[in-house]
């Protein structure tokens, strides 16, 4: 079944959050706990993503999950027993924090089944999304709550139609870690026309240093493309390959524009970046930051003092 083209101006109401990954980089912590539920200070990572979608006005959110992901559903559901305990203790602050999670959005869940890649996870949202444009938010990329990236992307979609991806300039040596966009300038500062996409190219083959990060606003025509997309890199159905097809001039789901993001982004995709994210967000919290930053300064000073000179010199050269 071919979906009709959703024209510019058609409002975006729904978001899709793929959350079916195995989280193997964080084993054994993710053996029984979804990686999306790992805490970032005092909230699971996936809650930041849902809050971002809700702040941009997207209050209908579909989670694409897999096996052993029940904890995600439970987190956004009511917990009457816990609420009664907190209420009896008079702990109104924590009670409100728990209740507010359930009010963020209307959440729905569908299972991906076979782990066939991000493109397949998005395709699993077809029945829920229908003929509407929709946003996709990946949980590995946390965007600072003070940023307006998603709202900017929705605005670009409203004015130009088609699909929109979030782009970020990276060190060319790191481009092999990302999908990479070939771009053309537009008359609008911070907005480019995407003429092609390559999944994780080698630096010498990369068309630019613009990396695709985990925010998309997609025309529903992407579903037809995904349905016929053959597995690519890693034996998975790549969302990048489908967006590449949408970027052609005659595609019914195009054009594809990119919003160049220069703000605060926190990568929780591997252990080191996850730890940096926790430290950065903790330092920035008004309730935790002052004391934590003071402790961190003392810790770094004391830790550095215990390192041998050879290690210190190596760290200076690495910096």
UniProtKB/TrEMBL annotation:
Q: Does the keyword Nucleotidyltransferase apply?
A: yes
Keywords in UniProt for this one? Nucleotidyltransferase, Transferase
Domain of life per record: Bacteria
The record's Pfam families line, in alphabetical order, gives: NTP_transferase
Task: Give start and end of each Nucleotidyl transferase domain.
Answer: 14-274
State a single Gene Ontology molecular function: UTP:glucose-1-phosphate uridylyltransferase activity
EC number, as in UniProt: 2.7.7.9
Instruction: Tell me if Cell membrane is a UniProt keyword of this record.
Output: no
Known catalytic reactions = alpha-D-glucose 1-phosphate + UTP + H(+) = UDP-alpha-D-glucose + diphosphate
The protein's matches in InterPro entries, at most eight in alphabetical order, are given as: GalU_uridylyltTrfase_bac/arc, NTP_transferase_dom, Nucleotide-diphossugar_trans
GO biological process: any one?
UDP-alpha-D-glucose metabolic process
Concerning PANTHER family, the annotation shows: UTP--GLUCOSE-1-PHOSPHATE URIDYLYLTRANSFERASE
Similarity remark: Belongs to the UDPGP type 2 family.
Can you name this protein? UTP--glucose-1-phosphate uridylyltransferase
Gene name of the encoded protein: galU
